[in-house]
Amino acid sequence: MRSTHRVIHLLCVCLWGIAMSGNRAATLAATKETVDQRAARFIAEHESQIRPLEIEVGTRWWIANTSGKDEDFARKQEIETQLDLALADKTRFAELKAIHEGGVKDPLVARQIKILYLQYLSKQVDPELLAKMVAKANAVEQAFNIYRPTVEGQELSDNDVRQVLRRSTDSARRRAVWEASKGVGAVVAADLRGVVDLRNEAARKLGFKNYHVMQLSLAEQSQEQVIKLFDELDELTREPFRQAKAEIDGRLAELLTIPVDELQPWHYHDPFFQESPAVFNADLDSVYAKVDILKLCREFYAGIGLPIDDVIARSDLYERKGKSPHAFCTDIDREGDVRVLANITASEQWMGTMLHELGHSVYSSKNIPRTLPYVVRTDAHILCTEGVAMQFERFSKSADWLASMGVTVPDPKQFNEIGAKLRRNQLLIFSRWCQVMLRFEKGLYENPDQDLNALWWSLVEKYQLVKRPAGRNAPDYAAKIHIVSAPCYYHNYMLGQLFASQVHHALAREVLRKPANQAIYTGRKEAGEFMRTKVFAPGRTLDWNALTRHATGEDLNPKAFAADFQD
User: Quick one: 168 and 24 in the same domain?
Assistant: First the structure.
């Protein structure tokens, strides 16, 4: 028995030696992999493991926001947590970090590795903390979706609020509706503060000063870079905005029969004064009351060679209780399953919104080549897709565009003059509003313990020239859903406006051979082809500034934007 035991023992030793020899051989073979080969293997493994989760997240997001049901938000949260935990794998991240720092030679592979490194880096925190962040943010987002302002026992939709602010001459009624619309801030403020604390904790654990700094870095931007650009925009827009607002205030005061110095935030035509009030003796909405907004969008995009019939077929476009009251576009799978969530009513605002959201849809996997790898088969940057959406959105205020689409405008000259003024004012007003959002979020994450109510209103007064109501001390900042659902993102809307102007000017100059203020794309398939080849085709193989150079020949800059608002 002892002899047999010894033979077995020796056999086991031999087998162990063979196994270890095999492991060493495998290890040696692995070490002989080039950095590029390791990178290609990692990318393939990422796509195999992470892509299904990303698709499921997109699907669950869609279901939750179209239903508003607790159980759907719970499932959305569950799959988001699974994705976060998969990206948080520290062993995988260590391998990715080594590859990222190893000097990948192939440019396309290197670009994918950089994108993945930034994606995984954001999740390298304690899984329990990640789960808390997702849960808290979901709770706030759901509170927004189900909140409805109530005035005198009447529940109002977002569209109802806007109608009152646009049309009512009763200051008391306007105030009541405006204050009710801000009421969601008080509902979510405490949870929002909790989200901020969790986000800052995560950022510090990753070596960043705070979450705002981290988010910009992860988006291939720097806080210094963005603030410098916004300082330039402040200088550029300050005086033109002051003049435009003085004219707007004069007309508002006249319409409301109150002195200019008695104007309050509820006297503007949207809850945050981020849009141009309709005070120039033109009712743009009346034209759109007589047209099919969805039909116009379908025909416009088809006419420039970027059809969207399949997007419309998959979308959810009209108001329904429980559904998100906002508007979004989402690319579910980067294989062409692109959808829009909207709440269309017959108005110029919704004409612009649908041109905007469907603009997102054409800059997606519908038109980004399927031959590109999955990791880069998406827009170059959030500012670029916002820019494209804004570029198309601007046509809603043009009688010339409406005429080109076969829509009769009773007084096209007046419509164009008023539309141009509104468009110019809109660019100015939006620029100043974005100053508030950027600087508030910067301050929020730098010092969440400060008086945030006071910070918000100090910025509103400085950049928007809207005075704080006497005695008001409420978390009005928390009524802006983007601070919760798209944190440290809003500045990209403004950078998107710069991108929109710059691309439009290039298209007008190089393709349509017309001045930018006369360039209308309707029926011009070459316009769609310019967008497809110059903007969409690179996907995310280029970063935002490289794409701007590819499309326009210049780095992103405010020159074209300045020309637009000076028209």
Answer: no
Q: What residue has token string 């204050």?
A: 179
- Residue 145: which pLDDT band, with cuts at 50, 70 and 90? confident
Beta bridge partners of residue 331, listed in sequence order: 338
Same structural domain, 198 and 257: yes
Mean pLDDT of the chain: 91
Residues 264, 175: Cα–Cα separation, whole Å: 9
* 473 and 531 housed in the same domain: no
**Helix residue ranges per DSSP H, 345-451:** 348-362, 382-393, 399-404, 412-446
Whether residues 518 and 459 share a domain: the answer is: no
β-bridge pairing 338-341 and 150-151: unpaired
> Is residue 472 located within the same domain as residue 503?
no
Same domain, 359 and 386: yes
For residue 276, pLDDT beyond 90 = no
Q: What is the tens place of the pLDDT at every residue in 422-453?
A: 889 989 999 999 999 999 999 999 999 999 99
Residue 173 in tokens: 């009624």
b/e sequence 206-220, b meaning 16+ C-beta within 10 Å: eebebbbbbbbbbbe
Same domain assignment for residues 353 and 501 = yes
In a domain, residue 399? The reply is yes
The structure tokens listed for 159 are 């569209």
Total domain count, the chain: 3
Q: Which domain holds residue 377?
A: 285-311+345-416+491-566
Task: Note whether 250 and 270 are same-domain residues.
Answer: yes
- What is the number of other CB atoms lying within 10 angstroms of the CB of residue 536? 26
- d(CA 375, CA 325) in angstroms, rounded, equals 31
Which range of 151-165, 273-287, 357-371 scores highest in mean pLDDT? It is 357-371
State the residue for tokens 């209308």.
520
173 assigned to some structural domain: yes
* pLDDT surpassing 60 at residue 22: no
Of the pLDDT bands very low, low, confident and very high (cuts 50, 70, 90), residue 566 is low
How many Cα atoms within 13 Å fall on the side-chain side of residue 179?
14
